[in-house]
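ENTRY TYPE: paired fold submission
RECORD: A
CONTENT: sequence, then structure tokens
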Amino acid sequence: QVQLVESGGGLVEPGGSLRLSCAASGFTFISRYSLSWYRQAPGKAREFVARVSPAGDITNYGDSVKGRFTISRDNAKNTVYLQMNSLKPEDTAVYYCHLLGTWGQGTQVTVSS
């Protein structure tokens, strides 16, 4: 059974940066699948943020984060990362990792002065 554990969230000022991590376990062939990040702000639907291909060579981003966020993965560590730069208050949300229909518990990101 796949398990996903996110970390790296916190409070940051507008314009700042954070790096989220998601460690996957419980499944032998994680490196064969795409990994994604989503986020959900209070009172809003869950929103697609980014996806990375199994080899890490193809990435896709939601329009609201293009040019500011970078997704990457380390298959040796079964971990996917989300580097978030130039953060804005509207980036405030719980960020979730997703793989094969499984969600992590989420990590809170708050952008505020």
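RECORD: B
CONTENT: sequence, then structure tokens
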Amino acid sequence: QVQLVESGGGLVQPGGSLRLSCVASGLTFSSSTTLKWYRRAPGKEREWVATITGTDGITNYAASVKCRFTISRDNAKNTVYLQMNSLKPEDTAVYCCNARNIYWGQGIQVTVSS
């Protein structure tokens, strides 16, 4: 059974930083495993945030987070990360990781507020 478990969320002031982690079990991150982060803000639809490919580690970001967020991976640890800097109140959402466009984590709350 595949499980993805996120951690690292919480409450942070505007301008602050957080690093989310997503650890997989029952699934091995390999060169063919594309990993993504999504988020869902209150009252809004789920939004794609970032992708990192398996083969070359190529990254892509939503315009709203580009230059502030960084996605990375550690295949040896079956973990994908999302470093979030210069956080804004509009970044408040439940953040979920996704593997292979199939498997989802349960999500973790990130709240940006003073």
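NOTES ON RECORD B: The mean pLDDT is 95. The first strand starts at residue 3 and ends at 7.
STATUS: closed
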